[in-house]
Design brief:
Helices cover about 40% and strands about 5% of the residues. The chain is mostly helical and about 260 residues long. It binds heme C. The site of heme C has 22 residues, from α6.
Length: about 260
């Protein structure tokens, strides 16, 4: 009995060990993402606001050079704890094209909190032409658009390494085991500890930046998580109470019947 228990306990390890053995260095298949613990995955599903705010800084200072975030407005940042004034300040750093004015001309003005995040490129063609033909996808829904999204984005960001000897690389591509085909047109965006100077004083290790930007992107993709999980818990409590009321009612109704 004890032995059986031990075998069951070790089974996942044995299976995983086999899996990594099959990870042939010349393989082009993507690895399973590393499994991380995220606060938004817990039953209460809260976003780690401090982390999401730092993640916004990583997005702004690193990713936004290439990736748009079209579905998010500057004022949405208040949901992760930025104040109204901070949001106004953030928006005002960007220029948007507005118009036409009374003369029929389009004009540029500073962005307002109600504007969507300004994209780095005018259009997809412009984006492709400076990225060797590859298109840096919009990141608004990226954690939903990929299987096991948050873990995948984290693994991708921390998964850049030198290609194994003999692995044939196309020009302008970078080796990453978590990307299908293991060659990605994105150069490693997070390369050095301290790359971002966090406003809250946290030291920006590569690991920390990857975690923070995932927290930010997960909030961007699923801002309703907290509300949804809260409603779920309330519903369970309500059903629990209803259960006891129904039991009591049933007992009362059937009391005199043998
Ligand atoms: C220098 C430009 C550049 C920067 C900076 C950059 N990326 Fe990318 N990214 C790209 C390109 C180009 C692609 C498309 C890659 C391809 O299709 O081979 C891409 C693809 C991606 C993908 C999608 C991968 C997939 O499964 O299709 C994710 C996720 C991503 N980037 C996240 C980020 C994050 C997060 C940051 C900031 C920490 C960042 N990128 C910074 C250029 C960039």
């Amino acid at each position: 009995m004890k032995k059986l228990f031990l075998i069951l306990l070790l089974l996942p390890n044995i299976l995983l060990a086999n899996e990594s053995k099959h990870d042939d260095v010349m393989s082009t298949a993507a690895l399973h993402p590393k499994q991380m613990k995220w606060e938004f995955d817990s039953i209460f599903g809260r976003f780690d606001r401090a982390s999401a705010q730092r993640g916004y800084q990583v997005y702004k200072e690193v990713c936004a050079a290439c990736h748009s975030l079209k579905l998010v407005s500057y004022r949405n940042l208040q949901e992760i704890g930025f104040s109204e004034d901070e949001v106004k300040q953030i928006a005002s750093e960007y220029l948007v094209t507005d118009g036409p004015n009374d003369e029929g001309e389009m004009f540029e003005r500073a962005a307002l909190p109600s504007d969507k995040f300004v994209s780095p490129y005018a259009n997809e063609q412009a984006a492709r032409s400076v990225n060797g033909g590859a298109y840096p996808p919009d990141l608004s829904l990226i954690t939903k658009a990929r299987h096991d999204g948050p873990n995948y984005v984290y693994s991708l960001l921390t998964g850049f390494e030198d290609a194994p000897e003999g692995f044939v690389m196309s020009e302008g591509k970078n080796y990453n085991k978590y990307f299908e085909g293991r060659q990605i047109a994105m150069p490693a965006p997070i390369t050095d500890d301290g790359q971002v100077d966090y406003k809250d004083g946290t030291y920006a290790t590569k690991e920390q930046m990857a975690i923070d930007v995932v927290n930010f992107l997960q909030w961007a993709a699923e801002p309703e998580t907290e509300h949804r999980k809260k409603m779920g818990i309330r519903t369970m409590i309500f059903l629990g109470i209803l259960f006891f009321i129904l039991i009591a009612a049933k007992k009362a109704v059937w009391k005199n019947i043998k």
